[in-house]
Amino acid sequence: MLDSILAKEAADQWSIEHDIDWDLPIRYPFWFRRSTYIRTISQIYHGERLTQRACQRLLTEVDDPLVSQFLACQLADEQKHEAVFARYINLMGDIAPIEPAIKDPLEGSLAWQGSKLGSPLGVMISFHIVFEGGAVTVLDRLGRSLPCPLFRAINTKVMADEARHNAFGTKYVRDQLPNLSNEERLEIFAHVARLWLDCAKATENRYSIPIALVTRLKSNYLAENWERQKLQLIKIGLVTADEAMKTEASLR
Ligand SMILES: [Fe+2]
Ligand SMILES: [Fe+2]
To answer: What total of structural domains would you count in the chain?
Structure first.
């Protein structure tokens, strides 16, 4: 199974220069100021950069050669995503600073210090499952809602990569779960839940990132995303629905 994800990784390679038609026009959504549009796309760019740090860290923590091989390919994908979004944004203006709604949960995910075994899983569950799983949904909606042909061309390529990273993380975590003690399982879940719930709470009813406006997701889309990804974690077997409920209740 990991072999087939790796084969797909090799088959799906694309080039910024040759596979994106840079002659496509840029079209701004009429409902945004330009600066707001740039600020929104800039958040994707920053997400790409933070995901690279997750890959770099995971590369030092896993010892399975196939897993390392995938992570090395993923790191190259994320560097390409950073470059492609930087080029797109620079056609419109300067890259805007990162917003807390992206920075806080991702920096928090990187700060995870678990046991030797728990450590890569804590990072991978937060990045590969919660963040990249959510990114696929958001990018899909952005691709449908935004009128820019160039953005759509880029987005189609990036989204396929993110879906593959998410599939890899899901597979890896599922395989590793039998090696985790109950205590570690619950500890990891509590850590990830706290990060994403805090972030959802901080941005509630505040369009700090206007993604919600573009995608017609509700303003509490971070909370909704957490609910969706939590179901994934239950399905994978990290926690039971009951354990998830109790842990979340203890965090509130
Ligand atoms: Fe990416
Ligand atoms: Fe990714």
So the answer is: 1
CATH number at residue 44: 1.20.1260.10
Residues with Cβ–ion distance below 5 A, ligand 1:
48, 78, 81
Q: Rounded to the nearest 5°, which phi and psi values hold at 147?
A: -85, 0
With CA atoms as reference, report the closest residue to 85 among 54, 138, 46, 30.
46
pLDDT in tens, 123-148: 999 999 988 988 888 888 888 888 99
C-alpha of residue 249 to centroid of ligand 2, in Å: 31
Q: Flag whether 193 is in a domain.
A: yes
Q: What distance in angstroms lies between residue 44's CA and the mean position of ligand 1's atoms?
A: 8
Query: Residues lining ligand 2 (ion), CB within 5 A?
Result: 132, 162, 165
- pTM of structure: 0.90
pLDDT band at 41 (very low <50, low <70, confident <90, very high): very high
3-state secondary structure of 200: helix
Ligand lying nearest the CA atom of residue 132: 2
Phi/psi region, residue 206 (left: phi>0; alpha: psi -120 to 50; beta: rest), is beta
pLDDT digits (tens, 9 = 90+) for 85-118: 999 999 999 999 998 888 888 998 888 887 656 6
CA 162–ligand 1 middle distance (angstroms) = 6
